[in-house]
Design goal:
540 residues, alpha/beta, 5-stranded parallel sheet, 18 helices, 13 strands, globular, binds 6-O-phosphono-beta-D-fructofuranose
């Protein structure tokens, strides 16, 4: 008997039946939107975010059934269990306490009988002190020059979220330093960075929970060699952020400073820990990092405390599952009408796809319904001029449109066609969901738009650190609520391991060849051998 369709989960079957109703012509979005109270019925405002799902393919009955599913799947209880430190990451037998990283209350959070909040507060205090010493020039590079650039060395969850936030806040004035990211092992990444930084004034923050990720270790070694070749002392230019007891948590290997990340905070959920805290505070100042944390904390509280029907991330998760499993859309786009949010889709792509791209339940049973969706996106209006052709007339996919009410640059007021640039941006931001939803009939099939293409709209007041924190927490909460519906564990990522293991075997073969040029790749499969021979011969 299937996982979801079995009798003990009858609401799932009723949702399947109702999805068939929603596929009827009278339920086309252009018909649903004839109801002038639709926005009022299908939107929420809370935690300083306006969330409009009036252009989703739902009616009252669909929402009622989805809320029944939320109750049946105990979404709110499971969120509370997560926040309270229960070992919700069952496969790795640990809690998932990213919410604790931005908890400013005095409530204890116990893990194995120990309150973890004092250690979390201490890391925040350590970051604050360290960052102020760097900014005031009390800590400097090995030639005594103050630092002017911080480079993050890290990949995946140890990088993407921080890059998203750094980009989102790059417009803020009085930034303290420049920030760059050395994530890819591709030598172009390293080569470009060293060609632009002043090495004497550069601080490198190695961020790795395991301190064994091949790309991060290769980049850290590359940087160390480069620093030494320049006659500088690496110990004065490196900072580490890693977990207690990792190979990088080694006092015999001196660094300027080191910070702990906790094993109960997963990489892709770690932006509000020291992972984001160290580089973002160096870049923007600690106070702004704290503002970002407080925004995330507010959204966490909203996710915890609001009833299901008023809970923005929970409603977004229900709609996402509705679209994925009942209306059968396999992909979803995130289109912020704000260039500073250009890295949001990449961050959510990892957050969502690494968390929920699973085929078994948390108890190891095979899922008979697909979990996880394909996430992609680019800022609008740029996206309109690239893949929106497919969005409007090709295979449909739901979209999250994100708008910002107040842009940072208010001083440029030139008008073109009677409107400012920001108004032009908003004209498009308002028009696209309507075009997708309502479509257009045309005698010429090539110019016809079928419509009925769903989207949600999220509005932010501005791009303050607090609002970026709210957006971050919104997507984290949405991701875990989805996982609770699918009954999967969103905190492990065994799917990334196989490729890493195979790369290890290939790396060993290449290392042998570097040692002994007569080594031939006889032990590898013929296709891999072809590529390895080609790489070593240098000719195509
Ligand atoms: O390969 C995926 C992954 O394990 C992510 O989950 C993690 O965020 C990233 O690699 C980096 O890992 P680490 O922080 O241990 O270097």
């Amino acid at each position: 008997m299937s996982q979801f369709k079995q009798a003990k989960d009858p609401v799932w079957n009723r949702l399947i039946q109702h999805a068939e109703v929603m596929n009827r012509p009278e339920k086309h979005l252009k018909r649903l939107l004839e109801d002038s109270s639709r926005l009022e019925k299908f939107s929420l405002k809370s935690a300083n975010i306006f969330y409009d799902f009036s252009r989703q393919r739902v009616d009252e009955k669909a929402m009622d059934l989805l809320f029944e599913l939320a109750q049946f799947r105990r979404l709110k209880q499971r969120f509370a269990e997560m926040v309270s430190g229960e070992k919700v990451n069952v496969t790795e037998k640990r809690p998932a306490l990213h919410t604790a990283a931005r908890d400013f209350s005095d409530r204890p959070v116990f893990v194995d009988g120990e309150d973890v909040m004092p250690s979390i507060r201490k890391v925040r205090e350590d970051i604050k002190r360290f960052v102020s010493n760097v900014h005031e020039g009390n800590l400097s590079g090995s030639t005594g020059k103050p630092f002017n650039t911080v480079v993050v060395i890290g990949i995946g969850g140890s990088y993407l979220g921080t890059e998203f936030v750094a980009n989102a806040l790059q417009h803020l004035p009085d930034k303290k330093m420049d920030v760059l990211f050395l994530s890819n092992v591709d030598i172009h990444n390293f080569g470009k960075i060293v060609s632009i930084v002043d090495i004497e004034r550069t601080l490198w923050v190695i961020i790795s929970k395991s301190f064994s990720t091949a790309e991060t270790m290769a980049n850290a070694n590359q940087v160390r060699t480069h620093i030494m070749e320049k006659g500088l002392d690496p110990a004065k230019h490196f900072v580490t952020v890693t977990s207690k007891g990792s190979p990088g948590d080694d006092p015999s290997n001196p660094v300027l400073s080191s910070f702990h990340m906790f094993d109960f905070i997963g990489g892709r959920y770690s932006v509000t820990s020291a992972v984001g805290g160290v580089p973002l505070s160096l870049y923007l100042g600690y106070e702004r990092f704290e503002g970002f944390l407080k925004g995330a904390e507010e959204m966490d509280r909203h996710s915890m405390d609001s009833p299901e029907r008023e809970n923005i991330p929970l409603v977004a998760a229900l709609i996402s599952v509705w679209n994925n499993n009942f209306l059968k859309y396999p992909a979803q786009a995130i289109i912020p009408y704000a260039s500073p949010l250009s890295k949001l889709a990449a961050h959510v792509q990892q957050l969502s796809m690494e968390s929920n791209g699973k085929s078994v339940t948390k108890d190891g049973k095979r899922l008979d319904e697909p979990a996880g969706g394909i996430i992609f996106g680019e800022p609008g209006t740029n996206a309109q001029h690239s893949f929106f052709q497919l969005a409007h007339q090709g295979r449909p996919f739901p979209i999250d449109f994100i708008g910002v009410l107040h842009p940072h640059y208010t001083q440029y007021r030139n008008q073109s066609k009677g409107v400012t640039n920001h108004q032009e941006l908003w004209s498009n931001f308002i028009a696209q969901p309507i075009a997708l939803a309502c479509g257009k009939v045309d005698a010429n099939p090539a110019k016809s738009f079928s419509g009925n293409r769903p989207s949600s709209t999220l509005l932010l007041y501005d791009l303050s650190p607090e609002n970026i924190g709210r957006v971050l927490s919104f997507y984290e909460a949405k991701t875990v609520f989805e996982a609770f519906i699918w009954d999967i564990n969103p905190f492990d990522q065994f799917g990334v391991e196989l490729g890493k293991v195979l790369a290890t075997d290939i790396r060993k073969e290449m290392a042998k060849k570097n040692q002994d040029r007569s080594h031939s790749f006889e032990n590898v499969d013929p296709i891999s051998k072809y590529y390895m021979d080609t790489l070593f011969s240098g000719s195509l």
